[in-house]
UniProtKB/TrEMBL annotation:
Cofactor(s) the protein needs: Mg(2+); Mn(2+)
Protein EC: 2.7.1.180
One Gene Ontology MF term: transferase activity
UniProtKB keywords: FAD, Flavoprotein, Magnesium, Metal-binding, Transferase
Gene3D superfamilies, sorted: ApbE-like domains
Designated name of the protein: FAD:protein FMN transferase
Amino acid sequence: MENKNTTFKQTPLQKTYFALGTRINLTIFGCENPAILDKTYDLIKYYEDILTVNRDESEVMSINHAAGKYPVRVSEATYKLIKRSVQVSQEYLGFNSLIGPLVKLWGIGFDNANVPKEKDIKSTLNLINPQKIILDDNEMTVFLQDDGMELDLGGIAKGYIADRIKDFWHAFDISSGIIDLGGNLLLVGPQPKHDDALWRIGVQNPHDARGSAIGVVVTSECSIVTSGIYERHLEVDGKSYHHILDSKTGYPKQNNLASVTVFSKYSIDGEIETTNLFFAGEPVKDWGKDNPNLLGAVFVTTDNKIYLSKFTPNDFHLLSDEFEVIQH
């Protein structure tokens, strides 16, 4: 009998691009039209053009340039994304789309990295208050009340764009593929190489180079997003500072978590939840129990313990004897 996945077991179409400040890998199965990949890249560039803060001109930069002066009207897509990011930021769970000035002050991961003076941190905290954003739903305008405030959607934009790519692919009847936006992974449809149609996803070892996995999660189509302290560091006087900054204190968030990986239906949810879970400071046992779109989370602690939320031990296969899976 013919395997139900036979139609996908052909040479995939795959191309690599550079956008969103990172390497983009797009892979589709069961399709013989490579132009779709280039059209996908055009879609990515469109969203980058309106959402970026790494250029002087974009819809978001127009808002930043007008900080403390006047509200700025933006497109419907940009407004809805900003509104979602502001609402989440105002929950004060960790995610903050205004944290840009604090990130620039520390500069971790860049040539100007430093430990700022306490007075500079305190003054910067006044610029990252998400309550100081005024949104007008009727006019679709955004107003940053104080001069020097900066809106940055970098912590949510990749997830939003990945979800839009999936919608775009479905419009072309692409039923299986991989959207890799520089570490933000969205799996579309069945896995074409396995008879069970499930994907095998490695969970990064927070102590080793990228690509070294401590375990594998077996899952159906979903988004995978990770927040971890291993990506960028600043070493000063024998002390290490990671890049995940706490907008309440102005300093890197200190806890026992090395990384949090979230598996979700929508990539934008994964972006938000990984940040919020990292700031929770400990594995959250009942995380996502009332939200079917949140499929599972893997917490890795600095003392090499692994905790699972919404996953069972059968869903996670440990690869490293340096780590221990703890039931909770």
